[in-house]
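Pipeline run #58 for the internal structure catalog. This entry was flagged by the ingest filter as a single-chain record with no existing model, so it goes straight to prediction. Upstream metadata was stripped on purpose; only the residue string is passed forward. Reviewer on rotation: M.T. Logging verbosity set to normal.
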Amino acid sequence: MLKNVDAVKKANVYFDGKVNSRTLQQADGSKVTLGFMLAGDYTFNTNEKELMTVLQGAMTVLLPGETEWQTFTEEEEFIVPKNSAFQVKVTEYADYSCSYIAE
């Protein structure tokens, strides 16, 4: 649960509007994004370590250094290392959160 957060009003919009998110700044200085992906194939790059949680729908993910795709559904999580890239396939939609993990 998020408490005492400030929302950045401007949306993060990617892939011609097929992926969008809103950034929430928490009182401790950390940030979380809440987002939505429409059907499509995407490649994301990271600068920070990320904890991705699927809230609704599903996403099939190829994580860095892996050869097998994995499907994540409601309430399932995966971690993406910082300074890496990962691929996502969405067949219908995916509602997600992304927490940035300090190392």
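catalog note: The two ends are 22 Å apart (CA to CA).
catalog note: The chain has no helices and eight strands.
status: ready for reviewer M.T.
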